[in-house]
Amino acid sequence: MSAAQVTSAWTEAHRDARALAWRLAGAGPFQAIVCVTRGGLVPAAIVGRELGIWNSSHETGKAFCGCGC
Prior knowledge:
By secondary structure, the protein is an all-alpha fold. It has a domain at 30-54. It has helices at residues 10-25, 41-50. The longest helix has 16 residues, at 10-25. The protein is globular and about 35 Å long.
């Protein structure tokens, strides 16, 4: 069984990220956004910008195994 492939343009990703931010705006204000991502940092940045969250930081190359190491 193979997984279906979905193709999306950057214009669609940008539109969807802005729509998500618009929906979240009513639940704010927010001070930060935490993202667990596999290639979705651009949409997270768009949501942050739309919500007025300008400062960001990220960690790369680390894994969480849950064992406390």
